[in-house]
Write a structure and sequence with these properties.
By secondary structure, this protein is mainly alpha-helical. The protein has helices at about 20-35, 55-65, 80-95, 150-160, 175-185, 215-220, 225-235, 250-255, 270-285, 285-300, 310-320, 330-335, 345-355, 355-370, 375-390, 395-405, 415-420, 425-435; strands at about 5-10, 40-45, 75, 95-100, 110-115, 120-125, 125-130, 140, 165-170, 190-195, 200, 265. The strands form 5 sheets. It has a 3-stranded parallel β-sheet with strand order 1-2-3. The protein is elongated, with a radius of gyration of 31 Å. It binds one RNA strand through β7, β8, α4, β12 and α9.
Length: about 450
RNA sequence: GUCCACAUCGUCUAGCCAGGCCUAGGACAUCAGAUUCUCAGUCUGAGGACCGGGGUUCGAAUCCCCGUGGGGACACCA
């Protein structure tokens, strides 16, 4: 099924990947995989000042993080400079271009491509597009300093790489009227084009850095999973045509087609990404999740070294549905590593000062103390039995206990909390709370 | 200003190309109810859209025209 499809993602490495570009990369990837073709990477590193080695390393790192595996070694555009120049000279000889100093302000002669004829092409997502000679004008392909412009470099490299489909943002639609004739003048058949709609912000304008959260790095830092981001971005401008939204990569590959990409701009839905992320967390294998969460603890300076498999097993179940992102984890479990610094006054008043909360806590000291084998089940049962014995609803004792253990009336379910905290710690915290809130 | 596309719930979209199956489907978000030891989650339900105007047609969200709106492109940037 190798039908010769070759596509490329051609970012200029400026340190981080904008989600608009990332979406283009994803669609290129999906298309290549769907067609059984090749997905290539070309690093457009001709701007030497901005394109540092670290920027390139970070680009490669993000590609790997997203699982955007390319099929051939990356092509570095900066290495093709001589070839670009040679192409410009060939166009000069063939009469497609000419030398001129126009608009250069004394910089010397540049090579200009002659564009004085009608151009048309058929875009896979936008349909047939045409421009008449009157609306087109000659353009520079080789600057007076001998360096190629984007248009020349882009086209020459695409020819060299055997690119069959160019899938990119639709801010390039107009450029294509330059690129198509360039391909022909260089004796090559132009590739098929698919221009992806822009991703816009709240105001309908293209996403810019000022909007915040536009770079992959920011999403990674905020605890989003690469697969969730991939899924959300794949759905940006594209849909499988049925009602599926959460899809595995294989399902997306299977369903993907450029014909189904919408031509109109799309706002990126951050809330939906959040939801998608929570879905991925909910479905993720426990082993992987544990590894990721362990890293979260480490970066928060919390040592989980002494926690065993069972501890994690008990923890994961109630934690999963509470995570929208990985960053929600530490606040949920900090209480298992550190005593509460303060007791929420509102909760103290409601659950300890006003009712019989303090009495319950004192009783619980005994009830818990009597539990020999401390598990989530046994600790939970002790609590339940105590409540039943008093003719109380579980909540009536659970809430005061929450305040004593966590400093506030919100926590994971009590059975898990009791176990995860450990018997000694539970008893110690109850005593401490009784002391600190005495007379409150 | 010129040229080019675009326009369905608050948002992302299905439907449009091949007009009737659309009293316009799904998802996120919102609201309500249920479950419940808190918070989440889950389940059930509700509200919510074819930009406007003309045409074509027995019939238009779907085809055509005009208008409007927001956008893109007009560099010796990429």
């Amino acid at each position: 099924m190798a039908n010769g499809v070759r596509v490329r993602f051609a970012p200029s490495p400026t340190g981080d990947i904008h989600i608009g570009n990332l979406r283009a990369a994803i669609h290129n990837f999906l298309f290549a995989r769907h067609e059984g073709g090749k997905f290539l990477l070309r690093i457009e590193d001709t701007d030497r000042e901005r394109n540092t080695p670290q920027a390139i390393a970070s680009l490669l790192d993000y590609m790997a993080w997203m699982g955007l595996d390319f099929d051939e070694p990356p092509v570095y555009q900066s290495k093709n400079l001589a070839i670009h120049k040679e192409a410009a000279e060939r166009l000069l000889k063939s009469g497609h271009a000419y030398r001129s100093t126009k608009g250069a302000e004394g910089k010397g002669e540049a090579i200009i491509f002659r564009l004085n004829f009608d151009v048309s092409y058929s875009d896979i997502v936008k349909g047939p597009l045409a421009k008449s000679a009157a609306d087109l004008k000659d353009f520079v392909i080789l600057r007076s300093d001998g360096t190629p412009t984007f248009h020349l470099a882009n086209v020459v490299d695409d020819i060299r790489m055997g690119i069959t489909h160019v899938i990119r943002g639709d801010d390039h639609v107009e450029n294509t009227f330059k690129h198509v004739p360039l391909f022909r003048a260089l004796g090559a058949e132009p590739p098929r084009y698919a221009h992806l709609p822009q991703i816009v912000n709240e105001k309908g304008r293209p996403l810019s850095k000022r909007d915040g959260d536009v770079n992959v790095g920011e999403f990674r830092a905020k605890g989003y999973l690469p697969d969730a981001l991939f899924n959300a971005l794949a759905l940006c401008g594209w849909s499988p045509g049925d009602d599926r939204e959460i899809m595995t990569r294989e399902e997306m590959i299977e369903a993907f087609s450029l014909e189904r990409v919408r031509p109109s701009p799309a706002r990126f839905d951050y809330r939906k990404l959040e939801w998608i992320n929570s879905q991925y967390i909910a479905r993720m294998p426990a082993e992987r999740l544990r590894k990721l969460l362990d890293a979260e603890l480490a970066s928060a300076g919390l040592d989980a070294g002494c926690r065993d498999d069972n501890w994690w097993k008990i923890l994961l179940e109630p934690v999963r549905p509470r995570l929208k992102t990985l960053k929600d984890f530490v606040p949920l479990v900090r209480t298992f590593f550190e005593q509460p610094e303060t007791y929420e006054p509102k909760d103290v008043r409601k659950y300890l000062a006003e009712g019989n909360g303090r009495r319950f806590l004192e009783d619980l000291l005994g009830a818990f103390g009597a539990v020999a084998d401390w598990t989530a089940q046994s600790a939970g049962e002790a609590l339940q039995k105590y409540a039943e014995g008093k003719g109380l609803k579980l909540g009536e004792v659970a809430q005061p206990l929450r305040v004593a253990l966590n400093g506030r009336a919100v926590s994971l379910p009590m059975d898990a909390t009791l176990f995860l905290m450990g018997k000694d710690e539970v008893l110690a915290r109850i005593r401490r709370c009784l002391q600190r809130t005495a007379g409150a």
